[in-house]
Task: structure prediction
Amino acid sequence: MNDLIRQAIEAEAGERVDSRTVLANLHKAKKRKPLGLIVGVATLTAAAAAAAVIIPTTIKKTDAAPAAQPPAAQNVLLIGTDPDHRSDALVLARFEGDGSVAVVSLPRDVYVGSSPDRINSLYMEDPRRLTDAVEQMTGARIDHWAAVNMAAFGQVAAAVGGVEVCLNAPAKDEYSGTDLPAGKQKIAGDQVLGFLRQRHGLQNGDLDRTKRQQAFLAGLAAKISGDQALMIARQVKDTIQVDEGFDVVEFAARFQGPVKIRTATLPVQPEVERGGTFGLGVDPAQAKQFVADQFSGKGPAEPGCVD
Result:
């Protein structure tokens, strides 16, 4: 009996087995077996028939459906704007096919090359000029860009039930409206905007604010599931500006669970004055190597508590 079943399975390698032939042969064999094997024969007959029909369509590798390929990695420039459309936050993010993200924050007061222009002024003039400047500075090609008003992050945080952040010390600032205790806490709504925009009273000013933005992104990433990513994308898609061809909802579909994120800040040189304004210089070779390392997985991990 077992030999007949084995022959049926092996025969599929050369040609499709006729299930009627298998059943007929098994029926003949059954007549020669003791009564006690009837139940077993019936079960094996059904199994053999199923094998004769199903196995030829599943066992051959050439007949198997190809495995789904993960989405290609993409570099996206994320731009957080104030009500006057100035760039309060600039984040170059590499989204891998598995949904993980490597982030490099670009301090807003960085000079563009040798000019007196600071990078935060370029988006208002022309988004293309901003992306060109970031590509030249970092050596990374930008596939897409997206600009969103910073106030929208409060709504996003509320939608996921609040975002957890951690402060080394209490934060109170009349300019940004920040009033938060020290330690771990969840923020949402107006608290988020104050947390993200405060720089007065921080030892390193805008650089410390950049670390807060990273902490918020890490906290948000930890809360996002596939359904929430799509919900957030649909919620904000009509309030953000993107380059032509960037489908935010389709892009969000790649995120299926808590997002693994690594964050870092582009290294800068001491503040200097150019054309009557103060800004930060960047060493071109150092910047390119830093971004390459961060995007390849060699860079720093998520931030902890921040100032």
